[in-house]
Amino acid sequence: MSKKIKVLIVDDSALVRQVLTKILSEDPRIEVVGTAEDPIYAREKIKALNPDVLTLDIEMPRMDGVTFLKNLMRLRPMPVVMVSTLTEAGAEVTLEALEIGAVDFVPKPKLDVAEQLQNYASDIINKVKMASAARVRPYVELHDAALDKKLTVDAVISRSSKSVYLKTTEKIIAIGASTGGTEAIKEVLMRMPADAPAIVITQHIPAAFSEPFARRMNGICEMMVHHAEDGQQIISGNVYIAPGDKHLLVEKNGARYYCRLNDGPLVNRHKPSVDVMFRSIVESAGPNAMAVMLTGMGADGAVAMKEMHDAGSPTIAQDEHSSVVWGMPGAAVKEGAVDHIVPLDKISEKILSLVVKM
Question: Rounded to 5 degrees, what angle do the CA atoms 334, 339, 343 make?
């Protein structure tokens, strides 16, 4: 049997520590080696127990989770899964934690904590396992700067037999991402000029977090970034991020493209799903669009990215070295869907060089 993943739980709530310990201990590959009620105790336990993964609450006495995370990722980088409340304020702080270097996050309900956390049990276990293999990097502070049945994309949008497309001057860049994706998306968008082609994005993220994420991106990018709305026209120089509880589809009407939000079932256990967005683009834009797959766990998007590739769309995948988790990009590569495998810091440059040839 492979070596167990050692986990330290840091949370000021005794109930949450107890529930998380019970959930994680049920998996034979995970060993909860200890718990701590605040970061001060956690520092000593990290030294003594040498855990592989930390689960970290955000709101704690003596030192908040974000301050502790900055110190930890600067001095002893290690995989961290944040435990955060599903509120707008919680979303802002969690996005900051992901910027600092947290691998992922687990939503902590405000009511019926024990029961609701148990409902997320399989998700929590999977995130801790994934985090144990994630690539973490030291934090450098910059100044001024229970699973549902797995449905395929056909459950939301079927593939037509259409194979003839008209070449248009309007281009669309479609980006899919999951674990580690909020930071990867930021890296790409911050390098895009204000007049870049329109960008549509599906990032696996809870509904409470997607709008604050869009606002955060709008504040630091030259392009205008929107939390996508149903019927919103897709215009160059603008970015449209899928809401965390709706599929984002691209629909063509005449010579114009529009956002269409869909409340259909989970696809590849996700809503929004990258496969759904990519499939809709095959149907509406064909080779007038480009597909980009960034870091993420699982394989969502690989099937429809291959369809985009076969329809003549240029396709890019983030390389393994720069990905937090090379699940989704790796699956797309295995599917034969990828033309270019590129480090994260070169993806914007590659997008812009390919656009002029489309």
Answer: 85
Instruction: Give all strands of the β-sheet with 5-10 in edge-to-edge order.
Output: 30-36, 5-10, 53-57, 80-85, 104-108
Q: Are residues 96 and 48 in the same domain?
A: yes
Fill in the DSSP letter of residue 270: B
**pLDDT confidence of residue 87:** 64
Q: Choose the catalytic residue: 38, 132, 204, 227.
A: 204
Q: Would you call 300 a catalytic residue per the annotation?
A: yes
DSSP codes of every residue in 61-123: SSS-HHHHHHHHHHHS---EEEEEESSHHHHHHHHHHHHHT--EEEEE-SSSHHHHHHHTHHH
Say if residue 344 is in the same domain as residue 242: yes
DSSP assigned state of 323: -
pLDDT at 127 over 70: yes
Catalytic-role residue among 84, 178, 210, 313: 178
> Which is the catalytic residue, given 300, 309, 319, 323?
300
**Does residue 109 sit in the same domain as residue 17?**
yes
Number of structural domains found in the chain: 2
User: What mean pLDDT comes out for the span 79-95?
Assistant: 82
- In this prediction, residue 147 carries a pLDDT of 42
Q: How many CA atoms lie within 13 A of 320 on its CB side?
A: 7
pTM listed for this prediction:
0.85
Q: Domain range for residue 254? A: 153-355
Can 178 be counted among the known catalytic residues? yes
Copy the structure tokens of residue 340. 């270019």
For strand 80-85 and strand 104-108, is the pairing parallel, antiparallel, or unpaired?
parallel
pLDDT in tens, 142-195: 543 344 567 888 888 888 755 556 667 789 999 999 999 999 999 999 999 999
* Residue 339 bears catalytic tag: no
Domain stops at, among 83, 103, 132:
132
Residue 281 falls inside a structural domain: yes
CATH of the domain at 321: 3.40.50.180
Q: Are residues 240 and 279 in the same domain?
A: yes
272 cis-preceded (ω within 30 degrees of 0): yes
